[in-house]
Amino acid sequence: MTSVSDFLVTPAYAQTAGGEGGFLSAGGLMSILPYVAMFAIFYFLLIRPQQQKQKQLRAQLAALRRGDRVLTAGGIVGVVQKVRDDSNELEVEIAPNVRVTVLRETLTSVVTSTAKPANDAAPKAG
Question: Keywords for this entry (predicted)?
Answer without folding.
Answer: Cell membrane, Membrane, Protein transport, Translocation, Transmembrane, Transmembrane helix, Transport
